[in-house]
Amino acid sequence: MAYFQSINKIQYEGPGSKNPLAYKYYNPQENINGKTMEELLRFSVAYWHTFTAEGADPFGVGTAIRPWANLTGIDLAKARAEASFEFYEKLDVPFFCFHDVDIAPEGGTLKESNDNLDTIVGMIKDYLKTSKTKLLWNTANMFTNPRYVHGAATSNSADVFAYSAAKVKKGLEVAKELGSPNYVFWGGREGYETLLNTDMKLEQDNLARFFHMAVDYAKEIGYDGQFLIEPKPKEPTKHQYDFDVATGLAFLKTYDLDQYFKFNIEANHATLAGHTFEHELRTARINGMLGSVDANQGDVLLGWDTDEFPTDLYTTTLAMYEILKNGGLGKGGLNFDAKVRRGSFEPDDLFEGHIAGMDSFAVGLKVANKLIEDNVLDGFIENRYSSYTQGIGKKIVEGTTNFHELEQHALGLTEIKNQSGKTERLRALVNQYLLETLSSVRV
Q: Which residues are tagged catalytic?
């Protein structure tokens, strides 16, 4: 059955196109420094927002019109799986991602849930034999069901901990069966509402124990995918233990887990933590921990996780700058953890949202690549810190000085001169490169 009969395969038509169902800037086969855009951007569709979300919000029921909406249970799950691969083929994306309950309904027992999961995994496995679209990562939903009211691996209930472990065990088996190069841990409710009733030390110790058991089981079954942690500061708990990259990195190093994990960084989670997207990407990059990206954006006027499709070209440029400086995303990718707005309820809107995001990151890729080629930002930064390449500065960097020598150096100073940081000039340069890139692709 065809679910998107009115949609043809999305093609690159260039920036002059007025076709809303065409790529204007994302040309999958365009070469950028020896790699195609498709290879560099590694786009992925989020199953949950695209095929299971119904457009509900706290004030109203779902508005989404979907061709599978008349079905329920396992029949609904099968239809969504069929529709998903039609969507991937027409959008021409290399990857998709899912939570376990996105693709299969939970049963009355864990066994029933696993049986449902096996049914849909079997379907997906058959599709993967002929589809160019592969699984980027999967994960376990351990936040929706009421059993997770107090968390999963950090729950005060040992039974919930055990149930969560069983879910991840199954998830790792599915990851191996479907050839997933990554497995994601999103904390969801791994945090607390108030310290008045929380044993923080026990909860964090248990979370680390959980992760070590996951590492051990992956080795046991021969699954060699990259483990990823997705930081988020709040929602649904008031304070989550994976608040941001820096907090997550400290946790991983404290519990000797940093050799097994990297980060899956989401733009909207970064801003909820009070950071820019590029801040979180750079913090991960300079520590060798940038694994994958959830590509979306938030609304500056709203204080929650709105998961909008990314259209801010300045942000996509700075994000791609960090990704290119990282040497790419390796096994990871740019997953659109993004949903169309509640008022965009027609099936066509699902395609148009992804097209907008893909074009935005394609522009960001081209601008970031040119900034790196021309040494625009790196050159300025190198000059700004040039005092550490000679004299006392070089000794500081090399660790060959001490407070005594530094005091003598300071006593001999008659004047200290600082340089302007030229923030406005640099922002203008980024804008200039962005506008020049947009102009050049229109020629």
A: 99, 102
